[in-house]
Amino acid sequence: MTREEAQALFSDYLEDALNTHERDEMQAFLAREPECAAEMFALDRTLTLLHRLPPREPALDIWREFLPRVETFQAEQKLGWIKRLRLRGAEFQAQFSSGIILWTHALSECAHARLSRYLQHDHGLHSKAEGGGEETC
Q1: Parent domain of 31
Q2: Alpha-carbon distances, residue 90 vs 83, 98, 99 (angstroms)
Q3: Domain presence at residue 109
Q4: 60: Cα within 13 Å, side-chain hemisphere
Q5: DSSP collapsed to 3 states, 95-136
Q6: Is the whole-model pTM more than 0.70?
Q7: Is residue 19 part of a domain?
Q8: How many domains does the chain have?
Q9: Does residue 112 belong to any structural domain of this protein?
Q10: CB 5 within 8 A of CB 18
Q11: d(Cα 28, Cα 34) in Å, to the nearest integer?
Q12: What are the tens digits of pLDDT across the range 111-133?
């Protein structure tokens, strides 16, 4: 048995889910490999501590968030296929338009970045303004 094989069986060993042959093989391996045995002992301690924690209730009421979507879906299913197709077409058009706007913005940013190296920067004006010389516009 390799270390990786043993690690894959840690949970089954701790939950007594191994058959007799596998359990004996694991115990022999752990006797030969004290580092692996220490790792399994640490996992056992961690699991024991986790099981002692009180169960937590979810912070969000998922059904309250999910119910309006289910109701919308059910209402759409009652529509005829032509009305559903129009509805889906309008949703697709809105999403597609949003995507085009984002793509155009990204394209303009990329073009601006490429073309900005051709802009002339007069560093002399900035140094005069900072040094108390004449003001610039």
Answers
A1: 3-52
A2: 11, 12, 14
A3: no
A4: 5
A5: HHHHHHHHHHHHHHHHHHHHHHHHCCCCHHHHHHHHCCCCCC
A6: no
A7: yes
A8: 1
A9: no
A10: no
A11: 11
A12: 998 888 887 766 655 555 455 44
